[in-house]
Amino acid sequence: MADNKKKILLVEDDINLGTILKDFLIIKNYDVDHVLDGVEGLNAYYNGSYDLLILDIMMPKKDGFTLATEVRKLDKKTPIIFLTAKSLVDDRIKGLKLGGDDYLTKPFSSEELFLRIENIFKRVFLSTHKKTIVDPLPIGKYIFDYSRRTLQINSNVRKLTSKESELLLMLAISKNDVVDRSVALEEIWRDNTYFTSRSMDVYITKLRSYLKEDPTVEIVNIHGTGFKLLGQ
Fold first, then answer.
1. CATH code for residues 2-126
2. Which residues belong to CATH 3.40.50.2300 in the chain?
3. pLDDT tens digits for range 172-216
4. Where does the chain show beta strands of DSSP type E?
C-alpha cells in the first residue's frame, strides 16, 4: 500500500542526477520528493514528513552541511545521507559530526545508494524494537534476558558479555529473518571493517555453542548477506 511507503526528501541541484535517483527509488517502492537547492530543501522539510533525507553538499543558496545543521536543531532522529563530488576525509568527518548517518562520493551506483538506505532503515527498525522488548525473550527452550545479559536453559544460566547480548538480541528480534552483517557491525561495533567483521564471526561462533543444547535453534550463515536465527 502506498501509505506504507517510506518517504524520502532528495535535495540535489543536478537535475539529471536527481531525476535518475528519484525514478530509481520510486521503482524500489519509496515515495520521493526532489528539490534543487538547500532553501527549497528546508521548506520541503518544514512542510513535509520524511523518513530519510538525502542531501547533496555543494548546492546553491544553501549547502548540504548548512541544511543538515538547521534540520538537526529540531530533529535529531531522521537519518541523513550526504552526497558529494569530493572524497576529502575532512568533509566526511564533518558530515558525520553534523549528524549524518552515511556519506556517498560521486560517482556512485543507484544500487549502492539503495543498499545504504535499506541498511539505515534496518538499523532504525532494530533500534526502535530494542526499546520496546519485554524481557525475558524465549528462544526455543532457552530464556534470554537482555537486561540481565543472561541465557538460561533449564537450571543452567550463562552470563553474556555486552556484545554477545547485543548480537543475540538483534538476531532474536529478527528471528527467522536475515540480519545484515553490515547493519550488525554498524549498530553494535559502530564500525564496518575487515577486523570487526572477523570479530563478529567469533561472537557468532560463541553464540552457536551457547545454543547447541536445543537442536531446534540454529544460527545460519546467509552467504554474502549476514545471519539468520532459526527457531520456534
1. 3.40.50.2300
2. 2-126
3. 988 888 888 888 887 788 776 777 788 889 999 999 999 999 999
4. 7-11, 31-35, 52-56, 80-84, 102-105, 137-139, 142-145, 150-153, 156-159, 178-180, 218-222, 226-230
